[in-house]
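Sequence of Bax inhibitor 1 (Solanum stoloniferum).
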Amino acid sequence: MNFSEMKDQGINGVNWYFNRNWNRDDVMNMDEISDEVHSTLKMVYLSLFCAMVSITCGSTLQWILIAAGKYSVHYYVANLILLYLTPPERVNMRVVISMLAAYSFGSSVGFIFNYLFKVEQRFVLRLLVGITIGIGNLLYQAIKTKDRREIYTGCLKYCIVIAVSIIARFILETDTTLQMIVIHTVLILFMGYLVIYSQEILYDANFGDIDFVICTFTVFYHFPGIMIHTIRLYLQGEQEEQN
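Predicted 3D structure, token representation.
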């Protein structure tokens, strides 16, 4: 393979990442979820919830024991490589490896945030706990109903509770810092992103099976592509309304 072919493959890969197949109608679709697709969504939520529990546990122990987080980064990368090398049919093994990878990531995430952004471990831990509870809420709603509107309304209610709590902290002047406000804001934005990401999962599930383990670990990887694609769809909708 020459340099020109490598460059073309790289460009095609970037275009695929940012030009996703779903459109504005798919995002706004609130139809009831079919049984098969509903099962896929629940498996993704369950896998994501278990991963977040592992991440939170790893972060908690790292905070309590003051473990060397930089070494956990190596464990996380090793587990991630092992996960991608494990054959898809070995589902149980891949789930175990993914939980170990999540735990290793949780053990290192405090070190990473402190090193890059000078954010204290306790604030990182609060963010992880908030995300874990939020995903648990989405999982509960998905188990309870197949109605997309009810699932996403449950997420909206959780975001409202978060907003009210930070306002209450600000009024009562209890542990209200700029970092706490930023953490709560990031949490609300991430829960909104999960709603959009869920719509992509449902769209893809209509065309075949989804690897729920890989889907769990691509939540953060897909974030830039999904956000840019969503903004592009919103701007296109605004232009159509003006015309």
